[in-house]
Amino acid sequence: MVTMTRASRVSAAFVKLTDTLVGEYDVLDVLHTLVEECVELLDATAAGLLLADPSGELQVVASTSEESYLVEALQQQAGAGPCVDCYLTGKVVTMGDIAASGDTYPDFKAAALSQGFRSVHAIPMRVRHRAIGALNLFRTETGDVTPEEAAIGQAMADVATISILQESTVREDAVVNEQLQRALNSRILIEQAKGVIAQISSVDMDEAFKRLRADARARNHTMRESAENVISRRIQL
Question: In this structure, which of 15, 92, 199, 223 has its CB flanked by the most CB atoms within 10 Å?
């Protein structure tokens, strides 16, 4: 079996992402592909993306596991945590040992540890000088990321930003806000559809998402379209 170097894996990941950024691509599918690649490339346990809506409130739009989704959702609801600070400051926030973080972000600390996460690295998503969200890497081991991992993580966050806001649309704040709101609205529908699938088919939320995503790809639909079909009961997954 051929073992790929990290450089080769990074190159392959960017080729894969580039292939998805053509035509009328599904931005949420791109973002989920991106967080999955982050886990593979950076030896993370889980990864997720939070985006700010036009009012500045963060929302979870992509995650690789239900555990990381719950931790990120708690930060979003509480308005406090490394990912929130990353967005607010536009700077990287790292917690190499969550358990040893003292009184910093007590709610986040309790939630992260309860899900088995021991360290987190939050990377800002920026459009020029404006932060629009954060890419978050969770690990079950303590320790900071290496400079190489940090650089790759920032590159992945930049790709996530590009996938949401194509260069030609970044000229006006109103257009930026419209693009962000569209992505956030789609995520809400997807969460509702996951709940429907989980209830009807007696599967967990991770499996429900996999079925929804597979249906979208099989039908050449966006995940939003598949979610609408599930919610309206036009299809059952």
Answer: 223
Query: What span, in angstroms and rounded, lies between the C-alpha atoms of 47 and 44?
Result: 7
- The answer to whether the CB of 58 falls within 8 A of the CB of 75 is yes
CA 48/CA 59 separation, integer angstroms = 11
Helix extents (H) in the chain: 6-20, 27-41, 66-78, 82-89, 106-114, 147-164, 173-201, 205-219, 223-231
SS3 of 32-100: the string is HHHHHHHHHHCCCCEEEEEEECCCCCEEEEEECCHHHHHHHHHHHHHCCCHHHHHHHHCCCEEECCHHH
Which residues, other chains included, contact 181 with Cβ-Cβ below 8 Å and sequence gap of 6+? 53, 54
CB atoms under 10 Å from CB of 59, counted, come to 19
- Sorted by where each starts, the structural domains of the chain and their CATH numbers stand as 19-167 (3.30.450.40)
The secondary structure of residue 5, as a DSSP letter, is: P
Q: Cα(71)–Cα(63) distance, rounded to whole angstroms? A: 10
- What are 151-175's pLDDT values in tens digits? 888 887 887 777 776 544 444 555 5
CA–CA distance, 103 with 133 (Å, rounded to integer):
24
How does pLDDT run across 8-64, given as a tens digit for each residue?
676 666 666 666 555 566 777 778 888 888 888 888 899 888 888 777 788 888 888
Q: Which two tokens stand for residue 218?
A: 């099989």
Bridge-based pairing of strands 58-63 and 93-95 is: unpaired
